Amino acid sequence: MDLPFADEPRTGVLSVGQLVGLIREVLAVSLRDQWVAGEISNLRVPPSGHIYFTLKDERAQISAVMFRGANSALRFRPEDGMEVIVHGTAQVYELRGTLQMVVDSMEPRGVGALQLAIEQLKRRLAAEGLFDAERKRPLPFFPRCVGVVTALGGAAVHDMIVTMRNRLPGVRILVRPVRVQGMEAPAEIVAGLADLEEQGDSDVIVVGRGGGSIEDLNAFNDERVVRAIAAARIPIVSAVGHEVDWTIADLVADCRAATPTAAAAIVVPDAGELADQLAFLSSSLSGATQRLVARRRETVRALARHIRDPRQVLRSLQMRIDELSERSIRAANVSVIRQRDRLGRSAGQLQALSPLAVLDRGYSITRRSADGTVIRDARTLRPDESLRLTFATGEATVRVAAGDGKRTRKKEKPTA
Amino acid sequence: MSEPVQVKKFEERVAELEALVRRLESGELALEEALAAFETGIAVVRDLTVRLDETEKRIEVLTRSAAGVLETRAVALDDEAE
Questions:
Q1: Which of A196, A203, A326, B47 has the smallest count of CB within 10 Å of its CB?
Q2: Chain segment A136-157, per-residue pLDDT in tens
Q3: ipTM of predicted complex
Q4: Rounded Cα gap, residues A225 and A219, in angstroms
Q5: What is the side-by-side order of every strand in the sheet holding A365-368?
C-alpha cells in the first residue's frame, strides 16, 4: 500500500470538481427516474416556493427538494411525518458536494395508488365535460316522490327520511336499497338508479351513504356509478357523508350535499315556510280584490254625482224656453221700432225732393197768368204780359217790363 | 312514466297566484275580471293548501321480483310512533 505523498504529481489524481462531476455523471445515468418511499421530515417552504425536506426511513436519509413548478401540481399539503412516495432523480449539489433527491411528483403513501386512479379518472371525465355547470339540471321545487338509492338500515337513510318528513310530511319516499361499499356496490348503485328511473315516480333521486374513509367511498368514485349519474334523466343529488373530499359522484351530480341530512333539506321544501308564503299570497289576493272593488265603488259614486233628476232637467229646459221666448218678443219689438225709423227717414227724403222745398231755399216759380204755364225761357215772354210768381210763402202778380222778352239770359229767369 | 295529465307543479301554481295578485293590485281589471281572478286565486290557494297538508306519509321500498318485475312495498320507519 503506497502512501499518497504529494511531493510529486501522480497520474489519476482528481480535483474535487472532477470527482463531484464524476459522481454526478454516474448518478445521472444509473439513478434517473427513481420511485422512493419514505417519511418527510424537516420540511421547509421558503418564500421562493420550493419545498425542501429530508426523506428518511429507519436506515438512512437524504435531502430532497421539490421545485415550485412541480409542487404547485400537488393536491395535498406535505407535512412532517407524512409517509410519501416520491418520483425523481438523485443528484449531487456540487457547491456543497451533497446528495439530494430532486422530486418531480409526490403521492401520499397507502392511498396513493387509489388517489392517483381517482385523479386520473376525474381528469378524464372533466375533459369530457361531465362536470360542466351547464349539464346540471335544476331540482324540482316540490317533489311528490323522492327516490333514494342507499343502504337500508343505515344512519343515512334514517336521517334522510326523518328530515324529509319533518319538512314536508306528505312527501312520498321511495327507497331502492343497495350496498354502498364493497366490490358489488358500484353495480348495485347503477342498477338502483336504473330501477328508479324505470319505475318513474321519482321527481328527484338522492344517492349516497354516510361518511367513511376514502376506501369506503370507493363506489362513489367508480366510473360506472359516475357515468350512470351523468346519464340519468331524473335530477340527482349526491349525498356522500364526507365534508372534506368530494367524490367524483359529487362532481357529476346535479347537486352535491355534504351529508344525507343536508340532501334531504335540499330536495324537499319546508311545508311551514310554504304555508306562510301561501297565507301571505292569500291575504294579498283578498286585499287586492277588496281594494279594487272599493275603487270601483268610488268610481260609481263619482259618476252618480253627475247624473241629475230628469224633473230638474225638465225644469231647466222650461226656463230656457221661457228665456228664449222673452228674447224673441223683445227682438220683435225692436224690429217694429226699426221699421218705423226707416219710414220716418223715407218721408224726410220725400220731403227733400218736393218742389215746394226748393222754394224754401229762395227759388220761386213763374207762371203765365193767362194759362198758368211755367215759364222756362225768357224769350217766350211778351212785354207787359202778366205773370204769377209763387214763393215759399205767398204769391204775387207781376208784369213783364217793356224792353224784356227779347234777350235771353237763363240766369235772369228766376227773378227774385 | 305514464302521466296522462301532468298536474301543474307547485311552484307554477304559486307563480300563477302571484300573477293574479299582481293583476288585481294593478287595478286595471274590470270588476267581473277582478272577481273571476279572485275566485281563481282562492281555488289555487285551496289546491296548494291541500297539497301541503297531505299527510300520506308513504315510505316504500323498491325491489325487483324474481321474475324481474319492479315492485314497491310500504315500510314503517322504525322510530315512528305506531
A1: A326
A2: 999 998 888 999 999 988 888 9
A3: 0.75
A4: 7
A5: A365-368, A386-390, A395-399
- Write the CB contacts of A293 (distance below 8 Å, at least 6 apart in sequence): B31, B34
- Substitution target in A144, A206, A278 with the highest count of B β-carbons within 10 Å is A278
For the segment B15-65, what is each residue's pLDDT rounded down to a tens digit? Answer: 888 898 888 888 788 888 888 888 898 888 888 888 888 766 688 899 888
Instruction: For chain A, give the number of residues.
Output: 416
Count other C-beta atoms under 10 Å from residue A110's C-beta: 13
DSSP code per residue over A114-183: HHHHHHHHHHHHHHHTTT-GGGPPPPPSS-SEEEEEE-TTSHHHHHHHHHHHHH-TT-EEEEEE---SST
Using CB atoms within 10 Å of the CB of residue B6, give its burial: 0 to 12 exposed, 13 to 18 middle, 19+ buried: exposed
Tell me the residues of chain B between 14 and 53 that have a Cβ less than 8 Å away from chain A: 14, 17-18, 20-21, 24-25, 27, 29, 31, 34-35, 37-38, 41-42, 45, 48-49, 51-53
Q: 3-state DSSP: chain A helix, strand, coil percent, rounded to 5?
A: 45, 20, 35
Alpha carbon distance A153, A165 (integer Å): 17
Angle CA A253–A254–A259, to nearest 5 = 65
